[in-house]
Amino acid sequence: MKTIFLFEWKKLARTPLSISILVFFIGLGAYSIYYGYSITKKQIQVIHDLENLHKEQVKTTIGYFNADTTTHKGKALYNKATQPGWIEHLIKPFATFYPNSFSSMAIGHRDVYPFYKEISTKDNSLHVFDADISNPEILIAGNFDLSFVIIYLIPLLMIVLCHNIISEEKELGTFILLKSQSNHFRKIIFYKLFFRTLIVLTLTYILNIVAAYISPTNTPISILNLLYWLLIVTCYLFFWFAICYLLISFQKNSIVTSLYMIGSWLLLSIILPSLFNFYIDISYPKRIKADMASEKRKIEESVWDLEPKVLLQKFYNHHPEYNTQNSNDTIKYSSKHFVAYYDALEKQLAPIAKVHKDRENERKKLMSKFSEFIPTLKMQKTLNQIGNTDFNSYIYFEESTLSFQKKWKKFIYDFIFKDENLQVSDYLTMPEYPENRSQIQYKGIVINAVEFILLALLIILLQTYVTYNSNKYLTIKQ
């Protein structure tokens, strides 16, 4: 094996075309790292700007308590700062989805779903996460990040380097000589393919490690996550190694073998994902947003036409802890009136939102099931899990956002229905969105890695079966 590796290394070093191809792919990998870095860096900057904006708004509002109340302007500012009905006009809290160290390597759904959300007591179920994935290319890849290079371009590099392992020997006239001098020709071919795969794997490792350590998050990299990332990448490339090993054993010339390999790549990377996405669109067609908006507008108008007293009575029935029943309950355009209006609106919109959300969840479940049978999508899903950019991570963000919104509502409602004014201390202790992420399911990553290995071994066994039963032993017909 050492002799074969040394020979292959010298041949690679003396082949300008192979060197050029490797340099080209290194350039693509470097650009993908830069692309993911720039996208994630911009999102981090937006999050920091929102955090600074919130702090500045709190600081400015607290400053209103020192306003000169002897003047009309100063008195107005002081009243705004103390009245709970004004707080959402002065301060805008945000829920933010901060990326981890691997998000720039697998952008996933970060370009599809929002990574921040303004929190308000006026929000309803139809406001939350209404982004769609209607483009098969976005569904499959999303962006030209490092995961795209690993999943779609690195296999092409393997095809370019490995398609002529046997046929080049015949085309150069060295095949008969090589075979006559060795009783272990199959091992030689295996080692030649293995060496070229190691070159690709080494190149991939370098790109992955560099990308991980220059992450724009400026947080310590998780060595455990990096190891799991490299594990799944290794198993995925082993899967493609097995495919190449099978296809070159069909004893075809370079052109035919390369067509076989490219056909396999097209099938797994383009055709099957597009077909299953088409099937999902037919099985679970998306509801037209214009119809939803029209229905929502009608409900808003019907709820707004209700008298304040009726709205508040409905609110008290659902929230007896706020039941004060005082004379202010009949005042139109009061803070209590608006609270009751938005609560009643949410109650009527919730069933519509549930139907929409259930349908979307069914789509996502079906996508997840199909991805288990398509290696490229399984790989994308796994890398997105490590980068916290998969769909489940956004479900977790949505749930965290809704939980924080409930705390925010309670904070404001307590002041409104108790007819209390805010003090400086209240602004200093107001709820803040905690920075948290969904836990990475390492068990699922290991299972996917094992499945890639088993699938690769199955392909190798198939190659052995085909070779021995056809009694060809990787010989090429003269």
UniProtKB/TrEMBL annotation:
Transmembrane is among the record's keywords: yes
Domain of life: Bacteria
Keywords of the record: Membrane, Transmembrane, Transmembrane helix
Keyword Cytoplasm: no
Membrane-crossing residue ranges in chain numbering: 12-34, 146-167, 188-214, 226-248, 260-280, 445-468
InterPro entries (UniProt xref): DUF3526
Designated name of the protein: ABC-2 type transport system permease protein
Source organism per UniProt: Aquimarina muelleri
Phylogenetic placement of the source organism: Bacteria, Pseudomonadati, Bacteroidota, Flavobacteriia, Flavobacteriales
